[in-house]
Structures are given as structure tokens and as C-alpha cells.
Amino acid sequence: MDHYDSDGFRSNVGIILTRQDGGLLLGGRAGQSGWQFPQGGIHADETPEQAMYRELHEEIGLNPEDVEVLGQTRGWLHYRLPDRYIRHNSEPICIGQKQVWFMLRLLSPENHLRLDTTDLPEFDRWRWVDYWRPVKEVIYFKRQVYVSALVELAPVLFADDIPPQPHWWPKQWSARLEKPAN
Hints:
Elements: E1 9-18, E2 24-29, E3 35-36, E4 39-41, H1 48-60, E5 67-72, E6 77-80, E7 96-106, E8 123-129, H2 133-137, H3 143-157, H4 171-174
Parallel strand pairs: 1-7
Antiparallel strand pairs: 1-4, 2-3, 2-8, 5-7, 6-7
């Protein structure tokens, strides 16, 4: 069983998989039009890193030797579910997720990616996208968490400077991307 905290947030891991050219892997939700990073719940007896490796295999068929861990977020990033997505008739009631995000680099050939390792695959397609594109592709209530994870983890991927924000980038998010003064 997945872990829930006393506030109703489900403990979860998020996986940002990159390849050598800096492209990020997005998975297409099975039977749906949506796209997202691989992610999944942390079982009560797992560490975030153990959950990350389990989800990595379940959702995209990769094993620990297929990737290099570049970094992880310092703490939990939270998002709340809109009321229409909360299952009020189930226990425990989940109001959202708190996530630890991992940045991984693919070491193996792309043909190691598999979407069919479980009876109910999370994804039925995948593609590589530019660094900020996932923010636009993910469902609206997860966007701020994607911004936070990508901003925090960008320095482990980009030695000099993170890629500039695209033209569609909302102004209220730009302040979060400015480097602090020394």
C-alpha cells in the first residue's frame, strides 16, 4: 500500500529521464491524450530511491544499470488535486501528492525502453521533448510542480545556464528562474 501523510498527501516519486542531447522523456497516458513524466506512489516500506527504481521498471522498463542518477529534489514538492479528482468515497482520502523528483540520464540504448512490463501499463507511447515542454504538456494542476522540479534540477544537467523559457512561459513563473545574487 502507498504511504499517505496525515494531511492526505500521497507520497510519490517523479522521474525526469534525459538522454545525452538533453531531451526529456514524456510518456503518453495509456488510452488518453495526456502526457507526463513517469511517476508513482511510494509504498509504506520503501525509500524514495527504491520507489523510483521500481516505478522506472514498471512504467518504462528500465533497470538501475540503464540509468545514472544525476540528482534529486531537496525535499517534497506538493500539488493538490482539483475537487473533481478527489475520491471522497475511498480511504484514505487523497487530496494530492507530495513528490521527490529524480533526474536520471539514460545510459542504455533507447530500445531498452518498454511500456509493457505490467498488466496495466501507465503509458502507451513516449517521445523526447525539449527541456521546458513538459510544463505545457502535463495536466494543468501538476504544472507548478513540474516547474519547481525542472528549475531545481536544471543545474545538474546544464553546467552553464539553463535553457531560456519559451515564448508561452507565464510571467509569474519567470521570477522563480532568476539566479540569486551572490
